[in-house]
Amino acid sequence: MNDVKKLDIYLPLILLLLGSFLLFSIWSAFQAVGLGSAVTDADYYSKGLRYNNTMVEKQAATVLGWSLSTRLDGRTLEFGLTNRDGTPVTRATGSLYLAIPNTAENINLPLHEIAAGRYIIELNDRLTGAIQARLDLGLDGARLHRQLLLNF
Predict the structure, then answer these.
(1) How many domains does the chain have?
(2) Residue 98: which residues within 8 A CB-CB, separation 6 or more?
């Protein structure tokens, strides 16, 4: 009689375990056949190849001791770029990339040097809210990258 009770308990547990395994297997198969992650980048390979160059450029900017100051006056964004000894970095080129919220639109704005080591960008009046921006400045193989959050 005791053996019958043990079988009565173990048989449903074994069936539940097998059923769970089958359900998990079916779910895993559907996940594997699906479209995959939405976080993929079609250009991942070339970005990976550029990674080493980017790291060398960042290290060059660090060795030079570049320092960046940022000021927002109304719709004018001004950047000051100096060396370790405080002298302005002239002739640098760069862009500000704006990620517009709730759209796939990204805006690329070139920097304009107005004085030695002083760079400005005039921002559009249509920009509102919190906007993520990436600043890229470069000169002679050295490059500086900064992430900004602009609030209008």
Answers:
(1) 2
(2) 106, 107, 108, 109, 127, 131, 132, 133, 150
52-78, pLDDT tens digit by residue? 656 665 666 666 788 888 888 888 889
The whole domain housing 23 covers 1-35
Do 70 and 31 lie in a common domain?
Answer: no
Domain CATH number, residue 123: 2.60.40.1080
- Work out the angle at residue 131's Cα, subtended by the Cα atoms of residues 152 and 61, and round it to the nearest 5 degrees: 115
Cβ pair 81, 92 in contact under 8 A: yes
Mean pLDDT for the chain overall: 81
The rounded average pLDDT for each run of 10 residues, N- to C-terminus, in the chain (152 residues) is 66 92 93 70 68 62 77 88 88 88 80 90 82 86 82 78
Under DSSP, the state recorded for 93 is E
Structure token pair of residue 69 = 């100051």
Do 63 and 127 lie in a common domain? yes
pTM of the predicted model, to two decimals?
A: 0.57
